């Protein structure tokens, strides 16, 4: 039942993988979280957070839990302890801790390890598809107002995230963008022209699909607002739905919740302009139509 993360998997994903495997081992032995916590001098809630991958792991704690769960095979123990070491490695985004909220660090880690990212946006162009001028204009409207230095740091973080689509084993990005985001003059006409041209350019990448939900369609399946769905190459990991709020975020991984958002995304893809029709619309917008 041991599954190691595939190459390129982020530390966040390795942490979730390790936690899920510890949970299955515990449950298969009929051991409560309270008893597991007693074994490592921790609370029941600490075991719960470990099993959800929401805290870092100590190799000693995992070794003690494996002994409690009856995992005596040397190869299996080493594979799991190896995951501990990998899970505790810092990702590149930790160098942006000064401008990266804790609740968003989780998303960046998941994004880095995803095989597929599906996203629906209403008000803004998705962050992974923003050109530099557009992103700068978005950050310039942040309230409360941020300093020039912080703006540049946030911009650097966004541009670094975008390398994900062009370097190494890039994920497949499928974005549905409401036409409102294309018509909203963020930064003024010059910035919007640069942004629309950037969307046309990036849509030529084999791993990027862009569709627009046009005004003329009227009411549609995305009434609940913006969301993203992340899928991972590891079979043990469920899809995760990401819902961003002003000062926090929700991460949904229960099957019923995820299935509901998957159905909405699939409906949006069916009802939106096709990728080729989307390119035609973007070209017309550039021409001033």
UniProtKB/TrEMBL annotation:
Name a GO molecular-function annotation.
Answer: DNA binding
CDD domains tied to this protein: HTH_XRE (cd00093)
In this record, what's one Pfam family?
A: HTH_31
Gene3D superfamilies linked: lambda repressor-like DNA-binding domains (1.10.260.40)
Q: Which residues form the HTH cro/C1-type domain?
A: 22-77
Protein name (Swiss-Prot/TrEMBL): Helix-turn-helix transcriptional regulator
Which species is listed as the source? Kitasatospora sp. CMC57
Q: What is the lineage of its organism?
A: Bacteria, Bacillati, Actinomycetota, Actinomycetes, Kitasatosporales
């Amino acid at each position: 039942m041991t599954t190691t993360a595939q190459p390129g998997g982020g530390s966040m994903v390795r942490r979730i993988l390790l936690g899920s495997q510890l949970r299955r081992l515990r449950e298969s032995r009929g051991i409560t979280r309270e008893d597991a916590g007693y074994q490592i001098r921790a609370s029941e809630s600490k075991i719960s957070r470990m099993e959800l991958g929401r805290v870092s792991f100590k190799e000693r704690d995992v070794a003690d839990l494996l002994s409690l769960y009856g995992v005596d095979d040397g190869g299996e123990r080493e594979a799991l302890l190896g995951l501990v070491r990998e899970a505790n490695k810092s990702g590149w985004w930790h160098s942006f801790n000064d401008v990266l909220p804790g609740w968003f660090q989780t998303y960046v880690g998941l994004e880095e390890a995803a095989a597929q990212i599906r996203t629906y946006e209403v008000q803004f162009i998705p962050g992974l598809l923003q050109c530099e001028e557009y992103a700068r204009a978005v950050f310039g409207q942040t309230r409360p107002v941020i300093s020039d230095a912080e703006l540049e740091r946030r911009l650097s973080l966004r541009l670094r995230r975008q390398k994900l689509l062009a370097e190494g084993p890039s994920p497949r990005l499928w974005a549905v963008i409401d036409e409102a985001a294309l018509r909203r003059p963020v930064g003024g006409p010059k910035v919007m022209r640069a942004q629309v041209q950037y969307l046309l350019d990036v849509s030529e990448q084999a791993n990027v699909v862009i569709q627009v939900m046009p005004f003329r369609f009227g009411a549609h399946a995305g009434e609940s607002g913006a969301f993203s769905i992340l899928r991972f190459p590891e079979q043990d990991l469920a899809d995760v739905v990401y819902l961003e709020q002003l000062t926090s975020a929700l991460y949904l991984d229960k099957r019923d919740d995820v299935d509901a958002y998957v159905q909405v995304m699939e409906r949006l893809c069916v009802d939106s302009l096709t990728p080729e029709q989307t390119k035609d619309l973007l070209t017309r917008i550039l021409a001033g139509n």
